[in-house]
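User: Hi! I have a protein structure encoded as tokens and I'd like to know what sequence might fold into it. I'm fairly new to this, so please keep things simple.
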């Protein structure tokens, strides 16, 4: 039970990836609202700056140079999602969510949420723990790609939303991910001598596989593309 507008990295019209029709490199579609585009892009740029500093902190925490992740984020894949969750009755079906349990696909998520509550994260004992809003604070999520890079040292925690506040809930997650062609494999100095928990993967391949698996419309799109190719 949610609706949203997703804005990705804004590209110039002569961007090679856009011209080549590569995945997730198309133009954003902007609503005709005065000042909306400028406001959103300004916020996006500010959050990208925060994310770059967080990436430096992650590298330093792992004993790596501050700029270790810089090449992977020279052309980052970014997603800014404006989310609205309508209220759910407190006795609503337990299988009905505002956002069903999931992990984030990429590197880091920076989440701004209002004071309605409803966000929960799953603990190691499989219990769901509320993540209550804290005024003037962001929630930071680790995504699957950072977990794979660190061989599980940083966990991509499952989370969900059930809006039983009795009113509308709004949140704005900013997803900060590497460039689509970035190869992700266990970082140096982590669990050396042991077999990596995950094999190397191209971020673009990984994120497209997740999108194709999780969104029903993409299954129909893939079937239509395959049919057209066969014809």
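Assistant: Happy to help. Inverse folding works backwards from shape to sequence: for each of the 231 positions I chose a residue that suits the local structure. Here it is:
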């Amino acid at each position: 039970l949610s609706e949203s507008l997703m804005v990705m990295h804004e590209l110039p019209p002569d961007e090679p990836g856009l011209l080549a029709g590569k995945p997730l490199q198309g133009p954003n579609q902007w609503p005709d609202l005065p000042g909306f585009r400028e406001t959103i892009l300004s916020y996006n740029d500010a959050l990208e700056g925060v994310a770059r500093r967080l990436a430096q902190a992650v590298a330093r925490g792992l004993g790596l140079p501050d700029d270790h992740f810089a090449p992977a984020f020279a052309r980052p894949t970014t997603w800014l999602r404006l989310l609205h969750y309508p209220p759910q009755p407190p006795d609503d079906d337990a299988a009905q969510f505002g956002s069903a349990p999931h992990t984030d696909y990429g590197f880091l998520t920076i989440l701004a949420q209002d004071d309605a509550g409803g966000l929960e994260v799953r603990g190691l004992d499989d219990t769901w723990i509320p993540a209550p809003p804290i005024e003037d604070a962001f929630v930071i999520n680790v995504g699957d790609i950072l977990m794979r890079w660190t061989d599980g040292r940083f966990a991509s925690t499952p989370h969900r939303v059930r809006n039983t506040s009795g009113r509308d809930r709004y949140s704005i997650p900013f997803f900060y991910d590497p460039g689509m062609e970035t190869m992700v494999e266990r970082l140096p100095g982590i669990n050396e001598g042991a077999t990596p928990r995950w094999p190397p993967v191209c971020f673009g391949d990984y994120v497209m596989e997740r999108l194709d698996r999780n969104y029903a419309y993409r299954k129909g799109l893939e079937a239509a593309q395959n049919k057209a190719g066969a014809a």
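A useful reference point when you look it over: Residues 47 and 222 are 33 Å apart (CA to CA). Feel free to ask if any position seems puzzling.
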